[in-house]
Amino acid sequence: MVDPMRSIKTLAPKVVVDSGQLHWVPHFIDFSQWPTLCKDETRTIPSPQMAHYVAPLRGDAARGRVIAMDPWRGNCVTCHEIPGEEWPGTFGASLHHYKQRRHTDANLYQQIFDVRITAPRAVMPPFGPLGILSDQEIRDLVAYLQSLE
Amino acid sequence: MRILIIMLALFLLPAWADEPHKEYTSAEPFLPHVSGDDHLTGTYRYWKDPKNLDMRLAGSPDQSWKLNWKHLDYPFNKEMHAGHLALDRGLTLFNKLNRSGTFKNCLVMYRFNGPYETSLRGLRTHYPAFRTDLGRVVGLEEVIEHCAKLEGEVLQNGSYDNSAVSIYVASHSLGMPIKIDVSSGPLRESWRRGERLFHQKVGRNNMSCASCHVGRIGQSLRATVVTSPYGDVAHYPVYRDRFGITSLQVRFAQCSLDLGFNALKPGSQAYNDLEVFLTALTNGYPVSVPSERP
Question: CA B86, CA B237: separation in Å to the nearest integer?
Answer without folding.
Answer: 10
